Amino acid sequence: MTEKRVRFKSAWLPWVLVAPQMAIVLVFFFWPAGQALVQSLLQQDAFGMSSEFVGLENFRRLFNDPSYLESFKTTALFSALVAVLGLSIALLLAVMANRVIRGSGLYRMLLIWPYAVAPVVAGVLWLMMFASPYGVVAYFLRYIGIPWDHLLNANHAMALIVMAAVWKQISYNFLFFLAGLQSIPQSLIEAATIDGATPWRRFWGIVFPLLSPTTFFLLVINVIYAFFDTFAIVDATTHGGPGKETAILVYKVYYDGFKALDINGSAAQSVILMGIVIALTVVQFRFVEKKVQY
């Protein structure tokens, strides 16, 4: 089988075609990342009128701050719950949607809708449902004898932001899982059925291994989503409270920079957060991908 390669008549044409994307990456990623790195090595006043080079002093101060170290545990727990629950529920829904015959189009459309909702709107929706004492879900929980108060109970607050974040991301995961399920040859499933394999055995022996590339991709995306894209949900629901029990790393970057006016400390936090996400992505590609069957 010969490999087909595209050849351009002009040596400059490929560079011209990728120039818009490269410009976006440079302007919206590399330039802000460089600015954050520079800011993390300086000490400025709140108005930016004067600055002084302090080297790694901002980083040393962060790692001596118990509340910042506690936010690592909060972020790890939150990210694990969002990734595991989001992928599990989306896979279950995709398997169910792949089997529906009558009304399957409507069923799939309803599952896709949450992805069109902005994160801050998703946060507000879940906040209204769980707002005590008049939220629908909070009222039902109180009716059955479960007092709900995410303003005072840290576990309730964590559960609230996890549910909102998972609900917001389920549609994205669902689309990829459904596409992966529909790409699996039905002849394999039929052959396993003829051989007497149970539905559970067919899923874990055939379907899930063939979905491993999709699962691995979604695992990386969901980890990045939990670290970065959930800021609006936390800000709209708990504001990092009660206390700082739900102050994940990305929210702490915002709070310290824009509310506490610690610009350089916030920049140092963003550099650390960026390094953590890069390291996690490298580890996933280095070790987790070995178990992926392409």
Could you describe the 3D structure shown?
The chain crosses the membrane at residues 12-31, 76-98, 110-137, 157-181, 202-228, 267-288. Residues 72-284 form the ABC transmembrane type-1 domain. Pfam families: BPD_transp_1. It is found in: Cell inner membrane; Cell membrane. The protein is mainly α. Helix content is 71%, strand content 2%. The chain is built from 13 helices and 2 strands. It has helices spanning 13-40, 57-63, 66-99, 104-112, 119-130, 136-143, 154-182, 186-194, 199-210, 212-229, 231-237, 249-259, 263-286, and strands at residues 42-44, 51-53. A two-stranded antiparallel ribbon has the order 1-2. The longest helix has 34 residues, at 66-99. The mean pLDDT is 87.
Strand content: under 5%
Arithmetic mean pLDDT: 87
**CATH topology, anyone?**
MetI-like fold
Number of domains: 1
Count, helices: 13
Briefly note the structural class of the backbone: mainly alpha
Spans of at least 5 consecutive residues whose pLDDT stays below 50 are: none
Largest sheet: 2 strands, antiparallel
**CATH level 1 name:** Mainly Alpha
> End-to-end span in angstroms?
19 Å
Named at the architecture level, the CATH assignment is Orthogonal Bundle
Amount of helix: over 70%
The H/E string reads: HEEHHHHHHHHHHHH
CATH superfamily: MetI-like
Radius of gyration: 23 Å
Strand order of the largest sheet: 1-2
Oligomer: single chain
Q: Could you say which overall geometry the principal axes of the C-alpha atoms support?
A: globular
Total E-strand runs: 2
